[in-house]
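Sorry to interrupt, but I need a hand with the structure work. Please put the record directly below this note.
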Amino acid sequence: MNRVSVPTGRPFASMEKVADLLVELGSERVLPRFRSLRQGDVHEKGPGDLVTVVDHEVEEELTRRLPELVPGSRVVGEEGVSRDASLLAGMGQGWVWVVDPLDGTVNFVEGRPDFALMVGLLKDGEPVAAWIHSPPTASIAAAQSGAGATLNGEQLRLEPGMACEPRGIAMTKYLPPDVRAVWERSSNGTGFGQGTGSAAIDYLALARGQWDFLFYWRTHPWDHVPGSLFVQEAGGHVARPDGTACRVGDGRSGLLVAESAAAWRSARRLLPRP
């Protein structure tokens, strides 16, 4: 995802307002139902794909309030798209908020604290701002294109590790059969770490030095726009496995995120090549 120039002005005067909104929703809408869901609060929108009343309530509130911060903007949220895929059209035009109201819904349902709220802001398809909030840990990560990244209000700069072989997560659940066959033939016995079930939490773990890289096949914008911009602005490197930029709506799969360009190159050597 390439950087674009970010004008000073109304949209970016709202960095703290968006962070405050996420903290508010985490405190008032999410945590009160954590480990307190009732019968009927959880549904399956697809085989093994859970959604809760919390997902819906948080997305509805963000859909109502975010456009007030950037006149003329619109919201594309995970749950809205699950009901109407046409919302994805035109994401490369104008101001668009991408929203994941509860990244890690299965963890939330099962009582595990690995979940977060994520918001990204696009201008003509390019990420210009991002926020990740973990209610259980009260963590808030934010980034603005060209202005760096912060974690809990402190400027963050990734420090590349010195490990001979990078440590990372490879999320292979959504690999198509032909790619999976290549993966199984040529993984060279490499052991990859297991993700938490929340891309947001995995991105935060990389920022804290727990991992050197993250690999994903499925790249929905609400899952990866916020984390990718956050890592890039902290000094990391993000690209498709072939080294090209990841662009919202390009219809391609695969994303490799690393703490530095050198770590990205090392991680790429560990991944099977078709």
Summary: The chain has a mean pLDDT of 89. The chain has two domains: 10-156, 168-270. The longest strand covers residues 95-103. The helical segments are 15-30, 53-65, 78-83, 105-109, 177-186, 199-207, 221-233, 261-270.
